[in-house]
Amino acid sequence: MTTTTDSIHGHDLIHYVAEHQPTESALIAHFMAQYGDTLRFHTCSQQNITIEELLTFLKKRKKIVEHGGVLQVNAERLCQH
Prior knowledge:
Elements: E1 8-9, H1 10-20, H2 24-35, E2 41-42, H3 51-60, E3 64-67, E4 70-73
Parallel strand pairs: 1-2
Antiparallel strand pairs: 3-4
Organism: Vibrio stylophorae
Protein name: Metal-binding protein
InterPro entries: Metal-bd_prot_put
């Protein structure tokens, strides 16, 4: 069952990664199954971005890193709000 939503904050994805340490493909599959293919995210500085764009954004800023094929949160790089 999918849920519709206008936009999900990127922090929700970060929290999921912190809890589950998924592969990138498993992360995308989870969110697409949960919210459907119209899923969009926003951050403090980005609006209406896809999950792939969000992952690129978070990796570029080293908030999410990949180690051994799984995604992990880099707590030192996260904002605290």
